[in-house]
């Protein structure tokens, strides 16, 4: 049996012991509804409010600026739709975003465009995968109601100049939302210092459980209700709260923030070692500006191969990784993120994302460094395109 190396932490993470233990009391003993007045309910309510305060502290926010949701996608949807609909009331129907956002953002914007007549400007992210604040500034119009730019990209790991973009939006009086699903718990996030009006997070990206997230909305910025029903979340999001999940999310975020520097140092070392070795593979390319990067994410393309083949062979060798391509979701289109940074289709098809967490070890890195070149060589030996390139009948692109 090959060793198991989990290197797909941008997709989801293993729950930490701390997070599991934080959730258990609310699954077993303290199962009361936080809206109930008797003590079993009130103990659940206290836990919920404690979690809200802890999450707010980790993000530089106030507790009453945090709304619990069911996931990062819901937080993105609520933030965008709320800002859009409030904008429309004032005749402002222009939204600025980027070409490489997560689909939770891009598909929400598409629907607003198709069904409600909003106009959307998608900014270029350039070859490095980084948005330029001056281009945000230039794109703002009198009818712009929202700028939404992700904090860190989920495929290539580039970190955006969020404080600068926030400052541009604040000066122009435009609401600024950021999808910080890949950033929170991994790199410093501070809504006050970074001029953020709304921010989305998701617990399962920082060793918390799946199916629980939060939305920060700055006091003074209106937030429209997303689910109608009871008065939970101060009327902005009805539905009995996932108390156990929320407590685990708060414990996981607190732990991730407390260990952020040590984790980042460990991950950067592992990442740089893997990058140094894998970039020795001929006709390979490292994607995303490494000077502005998440500590644990690596995205590379290997010419002449398909990402899916690479993933399947790596799985056989005990490595869980992912491809930038959307083939796993049933589409044969290459990743919109890799196309947004200007990669040609045929190169974007041969991509690999390795995303590490602090649970990865030097031995995991050794295994990745050993297996990836072997698999690339094996796939190239079977690839008609690669053979044409080797015979000089087709030009190498990278
Ligand atoms: N935004 C980004 C950048 C993500 O990486 C993800 C998850 O992959 C999401 C949003 C969606 O989060 P969730 O899975 O909690 O809906």
- Which whole number gives the mean pLDDT? 96
Describe the main β-sheet briefly. Answer: 7 strands, mixed
**Strand pairing plus helix content: what structural class?**
alpha/beta
Widest sheet, order of strands: 2-8-7-6-5-3-4
- Terminal CA distance reads 35 Å
Regarding CATH, which class of the largest domain?
A: Alpha Beta
Q: What is the element string, with H for helices and E for strands? A: EHHEHEHEHEHEEEHHEEHEHHEHH
Present as ligands are:
pyridoxal-5'-phosphate
In CATH terms, the superfamily of the largest domain is Type I PLP-dependent aspartate aminotransferase-like (Major domain)
Report the radius of gyration as a whole number of Å: 22 Å
Give me the secondary-structure topology:
Layout: E1 5-6, H1 17-27, H2 39-59, E2 66-69, H3 72-89, E3 94-98, H4 103-116, E4 119-123, H5 133-139, E5 144-148, H6 162-172, E6 175-179, E7 198-202, E8 213-217, H7 243-258, H8 260-278, E9 284-286, E10 297-302, H9 307-316, E11 319-320, H10 336-340, H11 345-348, E12 351-355, H12 362-382, H13 384-390
Parallel strand pairs: 1-11, 3-4, 3-5, 5-6, 6-7
Antiparallel strand pairs: 2-8, 7-8, 9-10, 10-12
Helix pairs in contact: 1-7, 2-7, 3-4, 5-6, 8-12, 9-12
Bound molecules: pyridoxal-5'-phosphate.
Residues 71-73, 76, 102, 104, 150, 154, 179, 181-182, 202, 213 line the site of pyridoxal-5'-phosphate.
